[in-house]
Task: inverse folding
């Protein structure tokens, strides 16, 4: 069974109306980022627990709870963790860092896959505002639940969320994941049935 640690990445499939699928691939925040925002992340997890939000419900509202928690968490006299450019929602803050670590794998014209930053995909209307909101909530829950619960509970929480929301977890980086999709498509087209899937779930 997959072990949950900070090197594990999450992949969020987005099904489009034209029957194509985009894959949003995100890597965990760095240790330094966690240490800087540890109080807000810890309180966000407490907010999930105190309000009875489990892996079925919390991923739908996690980013909203993170932002609310930041507003209510004092950083210094007269300032909260929502304030300033490095506040949770600031231009160089936690959410911005989560987005920086997120890319989208999209089908290209040559029947392969290409990658681009998540924010670029949004600006090019490849990802709608509603889809962006859903992705941010899922990424926030993944980030908090990967770091804050007791280590023995993290695996069940993350894999439970992945099953409920039909997500993937993988140790592959974004480019490796895109390559694995090409391999899977090539094997499917040739009718091969490889013993080991190249797209870990």
Result:
């Amino acid at each position: 069974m997959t072990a949950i640690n900070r090197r594990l990445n999450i992949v969020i499939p987005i099904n489009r109306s034209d029957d194509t699928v985009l894959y949003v691939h995100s890597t965990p925040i760095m240790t330094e980022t966690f240490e800087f925002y540890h109080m807000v992340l810890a309180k966000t997890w407490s907010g999930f627990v105190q309000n009875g939000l489990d892996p079925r419900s919390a991923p739908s509202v996690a980013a909203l709870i993170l932002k609310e928690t930041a507003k209510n968490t004092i950083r210094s006299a007269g300032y909260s963790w929502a304030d300033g450019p490095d506040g949770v929602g600031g231009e160089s803050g936690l959410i911005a860092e989560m987005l920086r670590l997120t890319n989208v794998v999209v089908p290209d014209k040559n029947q392969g896959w290409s990658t681009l930053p998540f924010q670029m995909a949004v600006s090019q209307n490849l990802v709608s505002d509603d889809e962006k909101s859903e992705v941010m909530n899922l990424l926030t829950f993944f980030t908090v639940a990967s770091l804050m619960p007791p280590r023995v509970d993290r695996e069940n929480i993350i894999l439970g969320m992945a099953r409920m929301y039909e997500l993937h977890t993988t140790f592959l980086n974004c480019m490796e994941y895109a390559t694995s999709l090409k391999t899977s498509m090539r094997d499917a087209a040739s009718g091969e049935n490889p013993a080991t899937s190249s797209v870990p779930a």
In short: Confidence is low (pLDDT under 50) at residues 193-201. The longest strand covers residues 9-15.
